[in-house]
Amino acid sequence: MSVLDNWEQWKGFLGDRMQQAQQEGMSQQVISDVAYQVGEYLAQQVDPKNEQERVLADLWNVASEEEQHAIANMMVKLVQNNQGM
């Protein structure tokens, strides 16, 4: 089973990676930029595996680049809040 198959696993996976990035000294801006790049990759290359990912993909596809950055930043905040960061 892929981490993309389950929304909670996906958020946990992202949170773990974000925690690693912060421990290695990545700034919040770099983390946000990486989140945008991941979002762009997923939107272009990966079929959503659950309802939450489908909603994100649909929003991403109709958003401007600025709005896509906002979506990526909100995902970072969501993961940080779930991880208690």
TrEMBL record:
- A Pfam family this chain is assigned to: DUF3243
InterPro entries hit by this protein: DUF3243, Uncharacterised_YmfJ, YmfJ/YflH_sf
Q: What name is this protein filed under?
A: DUF3243 domain-containing protein
Species whose genome carries this gene: Anaerobacillus arseniciselenatis
